[in-house]
Amino acid sequence: MTLTRTSFITFLSILFLAIQHHSSYGAIEDPGSIKTSSPPCVDDSIAAGSRGCLSGLRPCSKVIKETLDVVREKVRKKTDYYYKGIDLDFSKPDALTSSGSIQTPVCNPGAGELHKNHLGQNCGEVVEITKHGVGSFHDDYGKMEIAYLQGSWIASLNCYTKQVANEIEAKKLRLSPACEGLGKDINKLFSNIPGKSTVFLSTAGRSVENLCQQPEIKTFTSSSVPDFCKNEAKARALPSDFAKHRVAACLLAGARSATESAFADLAVCEIVGRANASYTKHFLAEKAAAKIRLKKEILNPCSSGLAKKCVSCARKITKWRKCTEECTTSKVRNCYQAKFPSFAQQFVKSIYPESGACRD
């Protein structure tokens, strides 16, 4: 289930009110002033010691891996449904019932789906080019153009998935306008966790170093949901001076888990938001690069020098006009059919490379 921004804030606010803690680290930058968001975790080198135990956060290696697993699975699911003609909207409680419809087939030219997609569906033929008067040819979309257009959005989604994954691994997710509000909310909540020692550890009656080495306590920062929160036998095995703080510990674990889940939702928001903005700019806008380059690199070259290519029609005294029109149209059509697939593939790959260096 996807948490809405409002329910997420309400949920965590209640949990944090139930937990008393004080700062043991230096001041943290005002989360409302930054345009990036970090994974809610603590460096592995810190996590191994008492400072990590006190922070209440899990090691970054675990949090980042689990976050990326969740994100990639959501993108995979969205992609699979997109190829079936369904556009999942993860911002709604029920993504399927709130989804839009996509014209199929979908073919991603950037992934080499030039004639058939990975489902074995035929990408169709290019538009049937017709004459529109002297020197003017029809440049509408056929089945192949539409299939490529739909598939180019998948290329955008894949590229920004890679880009966002790179940023998460670098622990600095850039926030775009579409997701900045949720990102700032997460930053505010996350700023309350690192460097905070909780009551159930700081007042446990023994040294933190000793307490944090107890097997039962170690599960607090090694597991998303500690064993003692879901297993009564494990709860009974807790040291007596910690057991009285079990409820607070489980509340904090719940808050931490919700923050991690919300960060994964933020990552998906960034991927889809960036993909939509870039795709609209490069493919759908009135002066989109795809339209300009298609005309410049295919339609114009294919339409030039046609008089010389159809010079034989000049010998037909009575039907030379019809002959010339049929000849020139055929030449343009054959040229366009031959060049369009490779043009589309190269264009999409230049905008959305596998490295994740997507062109915004």
Gist of the model:
The chain is mainly alpha-helical. It contains 16 helices and six strands.
End-to-end Cα distance: 30 Å
Query: Total domains, how many?
Result: 1
> How is the biggest beta sheet arranged?
2 strands, antiparallel
Strand content: under 5%
Mean pLDDT over all positions: 76
Low-confidence stretches: 1-33, 132-138, 194-199
Radius of gyration: 29 Å
Shape: rod-shaped
- The run of helices and strands is HEEHHHEEHEHEHHHHHHHHHH
Tally of DSSP helical segments: 16
Number of strands: 6
Order of strands, main sheet, comes to 1-6
Helical fraction = 55-70%
Q: Could you name the key traits of this structure?
A:
360 residues
Structural write-up:
With 360 residues, this protein is mostly helical. It has 16 helices and 6 strands. Helices cover 57% and strands 4% of the residues. The strands form 3 sheets. Strands 1-6 form a two-stranded antiparallel ribbon. The chain has a two-stranded antiparallel sheet with strand order 2-5. Strands 3-4 form a two-stranded antiparallel sheet. Helix 5 (143-169) packs parallel to helix 16 (320-351). The longest helix is centred in the last third of the chain and has 39 residues, at 246-284.
